[in-house]
Amino acid sequence: MEAHGRVLSSATPSEEEMDLRRGPWTVEEDLKLINYIAVHGEGRWNTLARCAGLKRTGKSCRLRWLNYLRPDVRRGNITPEEQLLILELHSRWGNRWSKIAQHLPGRTDNEIKNYWRTRVQKQAKQLQCDVNSKKFKDAMRYLWMPRLIERIQAASGGSLQASNLLPDHPAGQPGQAWPCQENSASAPAGSNSSDSVVTQFSSPPTSDSFTGDYYNYPDNCIQGGENNSDEGTQAGFAQLEDGWYENRGFLDFEQGGWGENLWSLEDIWSTQQQV
DNA sequence: AATCCAACCAACCGCCTTACA
DNA sequence: CTGTAAGGCGGTTGGTTGGAT
C-alpha cells in the first residue's frame, strides 16, 4: 500500500496539512471512490475527495474515476476499427484527445493519447519525419488507413479492396496529384463542418457502414484547400519513397499492432510510380 | 542469470475555460 | 464586471514490464 503511494512533501503548508497522497492508487482508495460515487454521484471533485476520506486532490480523483474506475471504461487492445477512427479523427482535429475520445465509446482521452504517442509517433520516428508532417500524414492516409480498411473488410468477410474504395486514388486518376489532407494543426476547434461527418461514427462502427462513411467526406476534407500543393505532395512522396524500404515503416506498426503485413510496400509504390 | 533498453500506461502538472459569488 | 475556485484538457513524467543481449 504505502510502497506505492508516495506521500506528498508539499510545497505549500496547506497541502502539507492535508497530507495529500500522490502516485498509484491503492485498492482501498479505489473502493472509497467507487462507493462514494455510487451514493453521491460524480462531480464536485474537491468536495468528493474530502468527504470520501481520500487524501487526494479533486483532480486526481476525477482522473482516476474517468480513466480507470468508471464502469463503462473499455480496456484492452485498440481494434482496427478504433485505430482507423483515431487516425481519421486526428487528421481532422489534431491533438483534441477528448473530442476524439467522444467518438470511441468506452475509450478515454488518456488511452487514445497514449496510443498515439506510443504507436503512431513511433512510426513517424522510424520514417524520420514529424508526425505532423505532410509526408507522414499522406502515408497514414494512403497506406495505413486503406490497410486498416482492408483488414476490417477481411474480418467481416467483405470482398472489397481498399484501393477500390478510394475514389481519388492516383492509380485511378493518372497524372492527378494526391489530395492534400486537412491541416490538423490549424483545424478550428469545434468546427461544425466536420462534426456532421464524425457523428456517423459516434457508435461503435461496423466495418460495412464504417468504410462507406469513411470515404463519404465533404469535399473540403478530401481536397484540403490551399494545402493541396502539387509540388509539396510530390516532394513528400519522393521523400517517402527514398527512406521507405529501409525504414520498414508501417510494417513495424502492423506487426506491433496485430500481426502480419497486409501489403507489400513495393507493390504500393510501384503502383504509384506507374501513374 | 544479470543487465540493458524500449514500450506501455497510469498519474501528475500546468494552462485554459467556465461557473459562480 | 471582476475575482476566484473548480473542472477540463493536452503535455509530460516516471514506474513497471517484457524482450533482447
Automatic annotation (TrEMBL):
Feature: compositional bias, Low complexity: 184-196
Pfam families recorded: Myb_DNA-binding
InterPro entries cross-referenced by the UniProt entry: EOBI/EOBII-like_plant, Homeodomain-like_sf, Myb_dom, SANT/Myb
Record SMART domains: SANT (SM00717)
Keyword presence, NADP: no
GO molecular function, one term: sequence-specific DNA binding
Domain HTH myb-type positions: 17-69, 70-124
Region (Disordered) residue spans: 1-21, 161-210
Predominant localisation class: nucleus
Protein name: Transcription factor MYB78
Organism: Elaeis guineensis var. tenera
